[in-house]
Specification:
Length: 199
Amino acid sequence: MKIFVRNAKTSDAEDFVRLICLSAPSFFPALYGRNMKSIMQNLFKEKNNLFSYQYTQVVETSNKVLGIILNYNWHIKPKMDLTTGMKMLKYMHINFVKKIPVFLKTRDVVGFLPKGSYYISNVAVYPEYRGRGVGKKLFFEAEKNARKAGADMIALDVETDNFKAIAIYKKNGFVIEKENSVQLKKQLFSFYRMYKDIR
């Protein structure tokens, strides 16, 4: 199967939403609520936010998307935090205001990005294409982007019970640095922060 990586386009929105749901099937609905899919789709189609097509690459074959990776560097993170919040307010209305304390608490647990770091926010491959080198191609693309940005390391957060993903990340050179948790509604979500040194 011949596969290649390209930058995402707004027309990839449906695949992006399906794949983003695969990457965090419980966490995102708990964080964003029942309209999570439409929020993500709208954010993906817009520029200058942390879920934008601008920061997403896709792997495809014969015009079929197989997987995605959402990634960005420490330079853009502070500015994009603000613009992402503004765009979420646009789509979530009063619900965004109600959730501000939860978003702030969550930001301290996942997505924190030290200087010199490149962040993999989400990576997902459709189940029927796993084990065919799609994920490896996505990680290679993220590392290429990180080096281009002048990063020293790549960071990601993964739920502690996602054993398959953790094994894949370790195989790709990531190591666990620490564990953090956040309570959303009545559910506790625990994450490992993992790093890969690319110096």
